[in-house]
Write a structure and sequence with these properties.
- The chain has about 725 residues and is of the alpha/beta class.
- The protein has four domains: about 160 residues, no CATH class; about 210 residues, P-loop containing nucleotide triphosphate hydrolases (Rossmann fold, 3-Layer(aba) Sandwich); about 240 residues, Rossmann fold (3-Layer(aba) Sandwich), CATH 3.40.50.300; about 55 residues, no CATH class.
- It is about 40% helix and about 20% strand.
- It contains 25 helices and 25 strands.
- The strands form six sheets. A six-stranded mixed beta sheet has the order 1-2-5-6-9-10, with helices on both faces. Strands 13-12-14-15-11-16 form a six-stranded parallel beta sheet. It has a six-stranded parallel beta sheet with strand order 19-24-23-20-22-21, with helices on both faces.
- α10 crosses α11, α11 runs parallel beside α12 and α17 packs across α19.
Length: about 725
Amino acid sequence: MGIAIIRGTNDKPGASNILAEAVDQWANVGDDHSAKSGKLYIGHPVIATPDGPRRIDALLASETHGLVAFDLVEHDSIAGHQERQDDFANAIEAKLRTQRNLVRRENGQRKLVVPVHSVSFAPAVANPPDAADYPVLNTSTLAAFLDDLDGSVSEPDAFAFALSLLESMSAIRRPHGDRPPATPQSRGAKLRTLERAVATLDTQQAQAVIETADGVQRLRGLAGSGKTIVLAQKAAYLHARHPDWRIAVTFYTRSLKEYFRDLITKFFVSQTTELPNWDKLWIAHAWGGRGGPEHSGIYRHFCNTNNATYLNFTEAKFLAGPSAAFQEACRRALKEVEAPKPSFDSILIDEAQDLPPEFLAICYRSLTEEKRLVYAYDELQNLNSASVKAPRDIFGPDVRWDEEAPQSDVVLHRCYRNPRPVLTTAHALGFGIHRTSSGDDKSGIVQMFDDARMWKDVGYEASGGPIREGAAVTLRRTDATSPRFLEDHSPLDDLVMFKVFGDAAEQDDWLVRQICRNLRHDAILPEDIIVIHPDPSSTLRATASMRARLLKREVKNHLAGANTMADEFRRTGSVTFTGIHRAKGHEAGMVYVVNAQRCYSADHGLARLRNMLFAAITRSKAWVRVCGIGDRMTQLAREHTALKNDGYKLRFRYPTKEELTTIRIVHRDILDDEATLIDSHTTNLRRFLDDLENKQIYLEDIAELQPTLRQVLAVRERGRQRGND
């Protein structure tokens, strides 16, 4: 309980700080302090009015006290306070009255369900006037005024909706379009309920949006914790607050561009009734290519602005290979430019886990001296580590980053997208918790965190004490980190379903029937469905039959990035088919993962394949169907069954450091050159063993190598023995 203080920016810092301290003291003093809960926004919200955006100095939102708008006075003159109080109250009331469910008729009058009050807070005024109609408060009178305030809200759902409206969240939580007539238990009705239920920012998210400081801000959270929405709203908030700033929003996945543009537009219009000034607010891909400003990117802009050599993918791939191409391009650009020209007042970066540190450095060096950089990343996008270094390791020891400031490092613990069974399924398969062991990886685990404490950061708690190497552990998600309403709408077996088929035709037939049922009987829209193929290189070929069969049944569909623009992902009235890379950053009510057997096993790079499966499953905000063919899919389904039998808790023996070393070697991602070298050595070793067995050669022929071979094998055996102890 208590009042969460969310500090935005305004031009009254002195009065803002004193108000925050006074409200915090009021909330924590007295016999009934436990009942005092809510949020105090400083410099928020921004509300659209006919005269332009109205910026509220501060707003207290509480179910027990309603909404209290504060006119903050920095000096000892309160001149004009009546007009300011009226302006604030009128703006908030007009916003709330646009929604029918926030208004009730009483005694022939229409009244707001959520009471709205406005006062002036003037800490420098020693003896404020005693006026009931236009109260003026200071630190001595604030607590008594709030205690006497009759503002209780009898309808919690209405209060939550009012907050959603003021936070501009209701604009993006609406369904994609008009759903067909639906019964309360239909999937369409359940999706509508889910969208409304998550329409209010939690305190962590609200702080991430509103609290801004000079220097670097880091935003961490797992898939579905709201990072992309927070960044979009933060961009809109900064643009509304500082229309003269040059702001850039960038990301790794091309298809996020239109999504960001749509989100930012809705947020900004909700606050200002105006469209964003796209000359000041630029949404750009990280790399960028040819084709004019719309197709440019941050890296290309950096090169053009500073006369550095720009490398396209083909050129960079030739120098460093496909996986390190962008890193090499950014590294060379940084090396060429000693003193970059500042281009932006603020840069917001999504999907930082997929971007090289050199690109983050380019963004940092492209900023004005305040260095306002916000980067968000998924704690679990790469399951084997924290994936993104700390700011000082990326930008150097002189980086502007206050590690102690709460707004500098925000961790979003709650997952608002995936139901708990969906999320734990993704984790169990991604880590290989119940995978059958083989070869050197005796535990079966494919990958694991470098630091076991990360489990807590991403919303898990360990039963029976701290995690210990080599000991059994049980990890579970709590109601605080995985809200129950995300899963209570449907039976567990309906939330997550694994389907094994004998061949591709059988899989295609089942998929087509299910999608047709979703559209015609479940009240689901085509935009609510995503079909994900884990292997991007073969997605076009592998999904051709499925898509053709749907078209024969008059179900429109498209393959994102193939028969759409590169930046387009969804289409109205069309089912989306996609490879896993383009699916990142997106979500849907119903997700079908096809040909999942490709992610069960591999000679090399199994961790990468399991990461793909993890990413695909976590696109679902309600239901997921994991489909595949043959024995490998049967084994994958057994992993899920074992998890389900454990009550969707992760139960396993935690690897030792030695075992983790072996796991990383066995399942590491292999580059093309490395794979060629391994294949060559494997072929030569097989030939040697065959010749040895056929007595074409003898061990005595390699006498000088025998001590080295024995030493290598002994070291491996000692490591294996330590892991078994």
